[in-house]
Amino acid sequence: MTTQTITYITPDEYLATQRLSEDRAEYLDGVVYPMTGASLYHNQIVLNTGIELGIQFRGRPGRVLTTDLKVRMPDSRKFFYPDVVVLSGEPQFHDERKDVILNPALIIEVLSPSTEAFDRGAKFKAYRTLESLKEYLLVAQDGPFVEQYVRGENGRWTYATTSGLESSLVLPSIECTLNLSAVYDKVDFNS
What we know:
The chain is an alpha+beta fold. The chain has one domain: tt1808, chain A (Alpha-Beta Complex), CATH 3.90.1570. It is 22% helix and 29% strand. The protein has 5 helices and 13 strands. The strands form 3 sheets. A 6-stranded mixed beta sheet has the order 3-6-8-9-10-11, with helices on one face. A 5-stranded mixed beta sheet has the order 2-1-5-4-7, covered by helices on one side.
């Protein structure tokens, strides 16, 4: 049995290499994790969700951003690329490069078989350290199903699910509604 050697790098080394790379990688406590390519339906769900929320943000403060901006945790030892990030106000950045966001109000991850455990576990644990984060959604690819975590006034997270193409869910953190028929437009669950 071979042992894989893990190389640790600093947050500054990660940012320097990531900014020069065409490939995306996330950073967790000194270790870089390359991101694999997403499926057709993963990309379709991300795009559909971004469009659905973006339309509702027209003329309002805040922004809906997808896939290519990193989010940094307060300890600076964790950087992730969420599928969709929503800001309720002006963006706050890590530095003058303006490619690392510090203040998401809502983060949405589209679940993939290879990332689901991480998205539910270590990633959500890290995201909860963001004071600005009020809501976290996990969106299934294999059927119309969304898991919603909302941070309450007391700091506790509540959990709810929404399923079915005829359903919608209210996103209190950004005062929007997400229609599952729009999220899953052009997604074939039978393929």
